[in-house]
Amino acid sequence: MTSSNTNTIPNVPFTLNKYHVSEEYGFLLPLPRTDLPEYYQPWMKIARNLTDLIEAHTLRNEVNKLPLLDPGYLQGHRELRLARMALSFITMGYVWQEGEHGIVKTLPRNLAIPYCALSRLLGLPPILVHADGALSNWKKKNPSGPMEIENLDLIVCLPGGDSFKGFFLVTLLVELAAVPGIKAMAAVINAVLECDDRSLKRALEDLASSIQSMTEALKQMHAHVDPATFYGMIRIFLSGWRDNSSMPEGLVYEGVQEDPLQYSGGSAAQSSVLHCFDELLGVRHGKDSAAFLSRMRDYMPSSHKQLVLDISAGPSLRHYVLDVGKPELTGAFNGCVAQLVALRNYHIVVVSRFITVPAARVRERRSRAEPSAEILTRAPSSLEERGTGGSGVMSFLKSVRDTTKEAAIPWDGNKTPTA
To answer: Using CB atoms within 10 A as the burial measure, which of 1, 100, 218, 288 is most buried?
Structure first.
């Protein structure tokens, strides 16, 4: 948030409605469609059978036989999202079916043309993004049951079995845990605009509690995802064709553009939640990390990206708390920062278990030239120590954790807070 009194959020009350953010589901797509009309069943038939087709090494053959379908008959936002999601998953399977050593350089026109058309309509790049895998790829087993992992399932899957499902469902639960914080964020903005310190303190406490719940939700990753399966099998299907030595030139989308295009793979950095919280709390990341995060905003639904930008251009919460100088507000503000640091610390723990440690084991086996059928050894060498979005994952996470700490307002608990 800016320190200027000039901002793009002048109206009170500020609401989330125009950003397509749900009071119940946050950034998740509420109640996604699970099937498309008969005309589009060729897409859905392949999407529902991706794992079997990939494991049989027949996905590319099936995709090459697809008719060129016109996405213009799709109706409504949910149908558009499901169709794009199906084509996103098919694309990842098509590119990575044979691992890093059997990559195709061209996406066939019967897939590329409708995929790029749908992506343009939705303001997203033609590659699998967080909004596909985590925000719109879910359904309840029992429609009247709770939003708990035992009652949730994915609409479309790639190889990885229960670990693949677990990875995306836990990610969904982290997004769901953020919902009270997203609502609190709107309350914080309104309280600052109205100079309502009592409401501001309460909203900041709600925000801190929500971030803590996100950390607790993230802990479920250990129970539902096997590190070897994630590292050796799942990650490659989430990888992109930018900053990836396996595909240095990118991917040609046949019938769309002759030159290859480069796009980053799926990444937690594409989630709008932490971008919003960073902007609200005035977190300022280092040059390289900030550039990567800024680029990841182009991988968000356009309305969600606009919310991040509007919060960034709005009145500065941090400066307001400093100007007011009330210890109780400073304590509540710093409580939010502390919980955000704790979440990022725990994310580092998760990445260490699921990427850093398995990467070390793979390097050890390769250095000994040990033959092994272990799933871990299937991991692509181009992704060692890197995130699927292309970042140097551990250095990036530590950098954003450290700059988050710096957002806290210096205060000893007694004296007036200082900048």
So the answer is: 1
**Is the CA virtual torsion 243, 247, 381, 220 positive or negative?**
positive
CB neighbours of residue 102 within 10 Å = 11
Cis peptide before 13 (omega within 30 of 0): yes
* Across 12-18, average pLDDT: 87
Characterize the bridge pairing of strands 152-153 and 139-140: antiparallel
Going by pLDDT thresholds of 50, 70 and 90, the confidence category of residue 372 is: low
Q: Can you name the residues that pair with 253 across neighbouring β-strands?
A: 107
Gap between the Cα atoms of 296 and 267, Å rounded: 8
* Confidence grade of residue 5 (pLDDT, cut at 50, 70, 90): very low
Pairing of strands 139-140, 106-107: unpaired
**Cβ contact 26:272 at 8 Å:** no
pTM of the predicted structure, to 2 decimals: 0.92
